[in-house]
Specification:
About 0% of the residues are buried. This protein has about 140 residues and is mainly α. Strands 1-2 form a two-stranded antiparallel ribbon. This is CASP-like protein.
Length: about 140
């Protein structure tokens, strides 16, 4: 709810932002100049990004894409953290990297717990993407 409220307020404030001011070119002669959000591609992008329109099915499709993107990010972060943690646990004799977990057991236990939870998050996101794709496939017209 907080996300919706702040996004909606941002869109309304941005879309209604407009100011006209008289700019003096030389004494006795001024021209009106207008500033509004449509003069900046960044502001137009902000409104477009914060106010997705269209049909609910189209919006759900965008959520599936964002969920898949988030899945990729979380899975990549989990893999990277897991790889470094494995080196900390086992070391690497070829590169002369020592085992860290022998000295910092509590630290490594925390890392292991975090990586397991991150892996569960990745699996949950994968299931959500699959569920979303399944639900969307049921809404598509059959040919």
């Amino acid at each position: 709810m907080f996300l919706f409220a702040t996004a909606m307020a941002s869109v309304i404030i941005m879309a209604t932002s407009k100011q006209t001011k008289l700019i003096s070119l030389f004494p006795g002669f001024a021209i009106p100049l207008e500033a509004k959000f449509t003069q900046s591609p960044a502001f137009i992008y902000a409104i477009a990004a914060l106010s997705p329109g269209g049909s609910w099915t189209k919006l759900q499709f965008h959520f599936v894409i964002l969920d898949a993107l988030l899945l990729g990010i979380v899975a990549a972060a989990t893999g990277a953290a897991g790889g470094v943690a494995y080196i900390g646990l086992k070391g690497n004799s070829h590169t002369n990297w020592k085992k860290v977990c022998d000295e910092f057991g509590s630290f490594c236990s925390h890392l292991a717990g975090s990586i397991v939870l991150s892996l569960l998050s990745s699996i949950t996101l994968l299931l959500l993407v699959w569920l979303s794709v399944y639900v969307l496939s049921k809404k598509l017209p059959r040919v």
